[in-house]
Amino acid sequence: MDWIALPDAAVRQSIDSATVFAEFQRVQGEARSVAGGMYFKRQGPYEYLVRTSPDNRQQRIGPRTAELLGPAGLRELSPISLKGIEQPIRPWEVLWEGPD
Question: Which of 80, 83, 37 minimizes the C-alpha distance to 61?
């Protein structure tokens, strides 16, 4: 068989492009798992966090709570003390957004 010798730069470029393309395919697969969006949906007196996917499916994550809102949706109230507990309790208030 006859082989055509490639310059070192061409061999390096071929290896680099194959590596980059394989990584692109891997990351594209990972990105599909987080594609979509999230929003709060009001149903009667409750609000739920809903996750949407690109094919328009919806999955209810759970009710609107302090754990879902994170620190930006909370306001620390002044400490209180309870009988039998030595340390003061630091309560938090969930800042709810009114209906649109």
Answer: 37
Q: Helix, strand, or coil here: 93? A: strand
CA-CA distance, 24 to 18, in Å (whole number)? 10
Mean pLDDT of successive 10-residue stretches along the chain, which has 100 residues? 86 94 91 84 84 87 70 74 79 62
**Exposed, middle or buried by CB within 10 Å (0-12, 13-18, 19+), for 6?**
exposed
Return the structure tokens found at 69.
Answer: 């809102």
Give the ranges where the chain is alpha helix by DSSP (H): 8-33, 66-69
